[in-house]
Design goal:
heterodimer; A: 1185 residues; alpha+beta; Dna-directed Rna Polymerase Ii 140kd Polypeptide, Chain: B, domain 3; six-stranded mixed barrel; five-stranded antiparallel sheet; 28 helices; B: 319 residues; 3 domains; four-stranded antiparallel sheet; 7 helices; 24% helix
């Protein structure tokens, strides 16, 4: 069917070459690295330059008797270039050494680089008449600014630009692509944060409240550190506004009340009603919209005369916050608000007022158009209206905040030294800790934000920085490409969680967690690119050259009504009009394709809405984009030809950027995608005469994310199954990094014999899944056999287990530090001597420690063993009469309960700044699969082992093959994981032909072809086989589906879960049994269990469970006063402490829960006397009720 | 019924590692018992205890120990003294190798191996791969040594970089496949029923030559062939056992010609007079620990001994 195609047209498989080039150049965490590079190389400098000339300190006049000064000192601060040092570490001795990521990981350091800045202090003498005279210029070069964590493999990282071999010499895994940070030794990922795009107009319909429609604009300036200010334009609900009906009002920043729209226009300088209408309605003959605006005009005409600009400004000024002075002041204030605070993204100068008039008119027009039903309300969940903040912008925000505080302090100490006439000491005045500690704190805890809110721990975002999941390589990759939506997780609104059509190709449709965060936590698709942003000025100049008319030069807004003209927006700002939008858009696109202008031109988005006559151009950061093949407008065929592909295959030097530069491919953002017509497959291009395609998908398999790309035939599965597998793939074991032996992770699993899958997907090549696999190919029979595989349990071959199937190593690391705080608290690694310890637990075993207090490598360790011996020297100073005795207290580290293993590695080193001795011990244990361990295929089919049979008890085929695993057939029909079956079928063929099967989704695999292949090799076409019962030797009645399937061993194992307790430790406070397996706790006999016992009437069981086995307690009470009495059982002495009233009272012994006793004592502390009466005292009587 | 029969073995094929024989005149239960005995009842010798003195390889100690355990050792010595093929030393004396719990002296139940390798290759940059093989059999070996399957491709235990070394002592003990499959001498043991293919020529009359040909082509290869000369369907000389009992030919016939043709072909296992299958084609592949004949004989002997044990217990009245 491809016959009619020109021979030089590419075919679908050719596109894999393009995809390969993409991943060769970009890898999988390109978006993290790119955004960090932008931050460290650009944003830091920009933030600092924002303060140019902003810091000025004048000495406050001091009264000093005897001295007389006729001038005041003034200091002006200027910041120069920021310099970045490579990551280094200064040891305690003062030695400076290069810091490498592995060192930071092992020694619990922070992988960060020092920033320096040049500071110029200009000192002026200000005479009393105000004239200034430059006194001197103090230039400070390379003043330390602070330490900023370095993203691995970014441009400032020590691994940048290194090749595999060098990377291995630096003890790194060559497959690891960086994109994370090392903070205090732990690897941290900054999760991308999703948010609504700024500077765009959104019109929503309200179902509740006073207003029928609301238009919102979240206005934020491109540069600078102002938080976004949102502008609301609201249309009254006719019924709710008795006076004016459906009028339009505006909420201005720093103004308490809503202002009618017409008044705002007057305040902005348009006084005549006609002009106002022209700005909003454009076409004055549009009766419908004119009518819609009538209530607003009426509202402005009511009451006082507000027809002049001054009157309108005064009207606003009266309603502004904290202004009640003169009319002039009010007008000035209102004027300032309009210039500086109203839509600041358009501009904060007097000149930008024209643009603001137009923009406001446009917003109002949108609002009315929506209310008239001409436009649909905007879609909040449209992905073109979303932006994603990667590590760069997040860090930039933090840096801004920290630097602001630094400057504040800096200004203070400048003022101080000026006032006291001292020289400025740069070292003490310019405190780099604000940045170093501020950023480190946020990255270590994940609480994002600076200032009071961060300290109080409220209103900040949490979970922004997370510990990189290292269970499997794919889990780490997926973690680095995750995006979070900070929306109240409890909110039950469904829409933001649902998969939106516009997420096609940029967000994985399968990979999202189940439950609370479902749909809010997203994962990027394989080829998603996140724009890093560029200045819009370049684009505006380009547009002007392309014939765009600027708003300021327009004769009248009425031309907007003309169908010849289109509005032009750049990053949401209406900048002008054009009469040739098609040409303008095309020129821009051409420039983008040819990459003729430097900078980030390739990520400019050009979206032209033909119907609304609007041209949207975006250059901002955080837009999700994806590459697409370009279809030539003239020929209707792809720009990329077969000969190019052949050239690429032969030329290893041809890079992705070159392909991009040649105009074969371009990045399209979600907004622009809406205006494109994209062919799904290469063969569709040119075959359609009805429509003209603009682009073509590179390959539809690229819509999937990291975890979903591991699934074979996901297009044949029920969709939730792919979601389940995407979650489970992260719990599989394999090899998580090739350098696992030199890493010390707190927890790690490594498979003995990992295998690459027999059935693979194409995407696996780029995920390095075959280099770092997480599973094994098992021979699986889907059969009923003895009944030990019911309800998602599995029968496993013990013989295969014996031979090493799914055997794994489990590593756990323990770490401890020798803390020394002054002289009072001294800690020491040593083998504790029992005699020296005041009270040592007799149950622990110190025998395996060396004299230095550490275990030997290759030592077997178990439950009771101490692996790090440490003592704390405590000087007891409470009893003054006694001589101060130093007592040693044991603070050793014991091996975890229920665990055992062999010491793999012992690392003794010194810690960060304090240089304290610090040790890390890695313990290794072998985990052999056993009953209860969890396994899963790649199709969300998980199960636990129900029984293991030796090979002689397993069924066998007539070729003598016996399965490694038997899965129950009931797992299939309701779950509809057809992909599972096709995987097995293709795997079987692969075994016979010696090939890897290709299970890439959306490829045309034909089950019939596969089964024909099987058939021709003498097997039953659908993969069924006759099996013989291993116990009896007789054939099984039914044919059994039989073949190899890739299985994963999941980290949940019985040995980590098994728990029982008869007696054991209790809580100190209430003497009830401890909670949790780790503390050998009890199993809770809860309310529902209690209810059962009550219903049964088995009171004694209840008493035993809740009292005897829990916190039963015996005490004595005075039977006169009912309070707890003194009892000495040894000397048989009993008396009530309250001798005044209860002398010679009788004492009774009672049994109550310890918790009850505790409650009584707490009540007594509150001056409430709970009295326990065992019988009714004589002077008391019961009342009949 | 079975008691009246005399089971028979005919050997069809035999080499160093494989044997193929037909067990006939008996019941499945006996055949299966034999199969199971071959896999998990015949004792062999395998490394069981490893003492590691030095290990600077990339593999963990337990990892190497596990790999060592799986190396097949020539285990004729493990045969029972009263068995069918007891081991004789150079002088021709029967010296049996004892179970660990039965022996009073280590030398009767343990064989020690030593291994010491260090990669001293000079080239410091290049990662040298070194094959490690069990070098020395210390004492009382009695022919117990790793099986040499193919001297060109010896078993690789670990690979060493420059200056990495392994030094260890390994002790081999006697065991059976039941305990751990490293003691199982069999690598592939199974039997099949002998198929009897009956073509219903009466039904076949209703089919044209073309239809017959279509049918044969649609059937899996290895059962039927179409004779172009006679236009008849014939049974293949070598029947593919795997597919014969899958019911494919019957199914295809039904699909092609309708339900009436359900009995166009009948494939059944060959059965004895009682109607139960009585011919079993055995395939036994050993891992080299024992030669195939010894293995099968030892397995039969183990089965017989089990029966004898029961008989003995009955006679003496104790279990």
């Amino acid at each position: 069917m491809d016959d009619f195609m020109d021979d030089d047209e590419i075919r679908q498989p050719d596109t894999w070459e393009i995809i390969r080039k993409y991943f060769d150049e970009n890898g999988l965490v390109q978006q993290q690295r790119a955004s960090y590079n932008e931050f460290i190389l650009q944003n830091v400098q920009e933030v600092i330059e924002d303060y140019k000339g902003q810091i000025e300190v004048i000495a406050t006049p001091q009264y000093k008797p005897g001295t007389k000064q006729d001038y005041k000192q003034k200091i002006q601060v200027d910041f120069g270039r920021v310099r970045i040092a490579q990551p280094n570490i200064t040891e305690v001795e003062g030695r400076k050494e290069r810091l490498l990521p592995y060192m930071a990981r092992l020694r619990k350091l922070t992988y960060s680089c020092q920033l320096f800045v040049d500071i110029t202090l200009r000192k002026y003498k200000v005479a009393s008449d105000g004239s200034e005279q430059l006194d001197n210029i103090d230039e400070h070069e390379r003043v330390p600014l602070g330490k900023v964590p370095v993203m691995l493999r970014s441009e400032v990282c020590r691994l940048f630009g290194k090749y595999n071999k060098d990377i291995m010499d630096l003890k790194e895994c060559p497959q690891d692509q960086g994109g994370y940070f090392v903070i205090n030794g732990s690897e941290k990922v900054l999760l991308a944060q999703e948010r609504r795009a700024n500077n765009l107009v959104f019109v929503f319909k309200k179902t509740l409240g006073k207003f029928a429609y609301v238009a919102e604009v979240g206005s934020q300036v491109e540069k600078g550190n102002k938080p976004p200010s949102t502008l609301y334009m609201k249309l009254w609900n006719r019924e709710n506004n008795a006076r004016f009906g459906a009028s339009v009002v505006l909420t201005l920043p720093y103004v308490r009340k809503e202002i009618p729209i017409v008044i705002v226009f007057r305040a902005l300088g348009i006084e005549s009603d006609r002009e106002i209408l022209e700005h909003i309605v454009y076409n004055l003959k549009d009766v419908q919209m004119m009518e819609a605006l009538r209530p607003s005009l009426d509202e402005a005409a009511q009451g006082k005369d507000l027809s002049t600009r001054e009157a309108a400004l005064d009207y606003i000024g009266r309603r502004a916050l904290g202004m009640t002075t003169s009319r002039e002041n009010r007008i000035q204030h209102a004027h300032d608000i309009l210039i500086r605070e109203l839509l600041p993204h358009i501009g904060i100068t007097e000149e930008s007022l024209t643009k603001k008039q137009y923009f406001l008119g446009y917003v109002c027009n949108r609002l009315l158009a929506c209310s008239l039903g001409r436009r649909q309300p905007d879609d909040r969940d449209h992905y073109g209206n979303k932006r994603v903040d990667m590590a760069g912008p997040l860090l930039a925000g933090l840096f801004k905040g920290c630097f602001k505080r630094l400057v504040k302090e800096f200004r203070k100490s400048l003022q101080d030294s000026l006032d006291n006439g001292k020289e400025v000491n740069m070292n003490t005045a310019f405190k780099q800790d604000f940045i170093t500690k501020g950023i480190k704190y946020c990255m270590a805890t994940g609480n994002w934000g600076v200032g009071k809110a961060a300290v109080a721990g409220q209103a900040t975002r949490t979970g922004v920085s997370q510990v990189l999941s290292r269970l499997t390589f794919a889990a780490a990759l997926s973690h680095l490409r995750r995006a979070n939506t900070p929306i109240g997780k409890e909110g039950k609104i469904a829409q933001p969680r649902q998969l939106h059509n516009t997420q096609w190709g940029v967000v994985c449709p399968a990979e999202t967690p189940e439950g609370q965060a479902c749909g809010l936590v997203k994962n990027l698709s394989l080829m998603t690119y996140v724009s890093v942003g560029g200045a819009s000025q370049v684009i505006i100049e380009l547009l002007q050259a392309g014939g765009m008319e600027e708003l300021e030069e327009l004769a009248s807004p009425a031309i907007c009504a003309s169908s010849r003209f289109s509005k032009v927006f750049v990053n949401g700002v209406w900048v002008g009009m054009t009469d040739d939008p098609d040409n303008l858009a095309n020129t821009l696109r051409e420039q983008r394709r040819e990459m003729t202008i430097g900078g980030m031109i390739h990520e400019v988005g050009v979206a032209r809405d033909i119907g609304e006559r609007e041209l949207f151009i975006s250059t901002d950061y955080g837009r999700l984009m994806r590459p697409l093949l370009i279809v030539d407008k003239e020929t209707g065929f792809l720009n990329l030809k077969r000969s190019n592909i052949i050239h690429m295959t032969q030329n290893e030097q041809t890079t992705w950027s070159e392909i991009l530069r040649k105009g074969f491919i371009e990045y399209i953002d979600v907004m622009e995608e809406e205006t494109c017509y994209i062919a799904m497959l290469v063969k569709d291009v040119g075959s359609n005469d009805l429509y003209q395609y603009t682009h073509c998908e590179i390959h539809p398999a690229m819509i999937l994310g990291v975890c979903a790309s591991i699934i074979p035939f996901p297009d044949h599965n029920q969709s939730p199954r792919n979601t389940y597998q995407s979650a489970m793939g992260k719990q599989a074991m394999g090899i998580y990094a090739t350098n696992y032996q030199v890493r010390i992770d707190t927890l790690a699993h490594v498979l003995y014999y990992p295998q690459k899958p027999l059935v693979k997907t194409h995407s696996m090549d780029y995920l390095k899944f075959r280099e770092l696999p997480a599973g094994q190919n098992l021979i699986v029979a889907i059969a009923v056999y003895s009944g030990y595989n019911q309800e998602d349990s599995l029968i496993m071959s013990q013989s295969s287990i014996d031979r090493g199937m799914f055997r794994s190593m489990f590593y756990r690391s323990y770490t401890d530090e020798q803390k020394t705080e002054g002289v009072l608290c001294l800690e020491q690694f040593e083998k504790p001597q029992r005699e020296e310890l005041g009270s040592a637990s007799s149950r622990v075993n110190y025998d395996k420690l060396d004299v230095d207090g550490l275990v030997f490598p290759a030592q077997n360790v178990e439950d009771r063993d101490i692996i790090i011996g440490k003592t704390t020297l405590v000087t007891n100073s409470d009893d003054s009469d006694q001589a101060q005795i130093a007592v040693k207290r044991d603070s050793s580290t014991r091996l975890r309960h229920n665990e055992h293993g062999v010491v793999d590695q012992v690392l003794l080193t010194t810690n960060s700044d304090t240089g304290q001795r610090f040790v890390q011990i890695k313990v290794r244990a072998v985990r052999v699969p056993q009953i209860g361990d969890k396994f899963a295929s790649r199709h969300g089919q998980k199960g636990t082992v129900g029984i293991t049979y030796r090979q002689d008890d397993m069924p066998f085929t007539s070729e003598g093959v016996s399965p490694d695993l038997i899965v129950n057939p009931h797992a299939i029909p309701s779950r509809m994981t057809i992909g599972h079956l096709i995987e097995t079928l293709l795997g079987k063929v692969g075994c016979l032909t010696g090939d890897e099967g290709d299970a890439t989704p959306f490829n045309e695999v034909n089950v019939k072809d596969v089964s024909d292949m099987l058939h021709s090799r003498g097997y039953q076409r659908h993969g069924n086989e006759r099996l013989y019962n291993g116990h009896t030797g007789r054939p099984l009645t039914a044919l059994v589906f039989f073949g190899p399937t890739y299985y994963q061993r999941l980290k949940h194992m019985v040995d980590d879960k098994i728990h029982s307790r008869a007696r054991g430790p209790t809580q100190m406070l209430n003497r009830q049994p401890m909670e949790g397996r780790a503390r050998d706790g009890g199993l809770r006999f809860g309310e529902m269990e209690r209810d059962c016992m009550i219903a049964h009437g088995s009171a004694n069981v209840l008493r035993e469970k809740l009292f005897t086995q829990s916190d039963g307690y015996m005490t004595h009470i005075c039977q006169d006063c009912g309070l707890i009495a003194i009892a000495n059982l040894d000397s048989n002495l009993y008396r009530c402490p309250n001798q005044a009233t209860c002398r010679n009272s009788s004492i009774g012994m009672i049994e109550i829960p310890y918790a009850a006793k505790l409650l009584f004592q707490e009540l007594m502390a509150m001056q409430i006397a709970p009295r326990l009466m065992t019988s009714l005292p004589g002077n008391w009587r019961l009342y009949d009720t | 019924m079975a008691s009246t029969r005399t089971p028979l073995i005919e050997v069809n094929f035999l080499d160093d590692y494989n044997i193929n024989f037909v067990l006939s005149n008996t019941d499945v239960s006996i055949a299966n018992a034999l199969r199971k005995a071959i896999i998990s009842e015949v004792p062999t010798i395998a490394i069981d205890l490893v003492e590691i003195e030095e290990n600077s390889s990339v593999l963990a100690d337990e990892f190497i120990a596990h790999r060592l355990g799986l190396i097949p050792l020539v285990s004729t010595r493990a045969m029972h003294a009263d068995g069918p093929v007891p081991f004789r030393d150079v002088e021709g004396n029967i010296t049996s190798f004892l179970w660990h719990h039965e022996a009073s002296d280590d030398k009767d139940c343990e064989i020690k191996f030593e291994l010491e390798v260090r990669n001293t290759e000079d080239n410091p940059m290049e990662v040298r791969l070194i094959l490690i093989r069990l070098l020395e059999v210390l004492r009382h070996g009695g022919g117990v040594k790793p099986v040499e399957y193919d001297p060109e491709y010896p078993v690789v235990i670990a690979k060493l970089k420059r200056n990495q070394a392994i030094k260890l002592t390994a002790i081999a003990k006697k065991g059976v496949g039941k305990m751990h499959s490293k003691w199982s001498p069999a690598s592939g043991v199974y039997f099949t029923y002998e198929p009897v293919v009956t073509i219903n020529y009466e039904r076949m009359e209703g089919l044209s030559a073309q239809q017959r040909k279509t049918w044969v082509e649609a059937c899996p290869p290895g059962i039927l062939r179409f004779n172009e000369m006679t236009g008849q369907v014939e049974v293949e000389d070598e029947i593919n056992n795997g597919i014969a009992f899958s019911g494919e030919c019957e199914k295809v016939a039904k699909e092609l010609f309708g339900y009436d043709f359900y009995d166009l072909i009948v494939i059944k296992p060959k059965s004895g007079s009682d109607g139960y299958p009585d011919r079993f084609n055995f395939f036994v592949e050993t891992n080299g620990a024992l030669d195939p004949v010894t293995l099968v004989r030892a397995a039969i002997w183990e089965l017989v001994r089990k029966v004898q044990n029961i008989e003995e217990s009955l006679r003496t009245g104790e279990m």
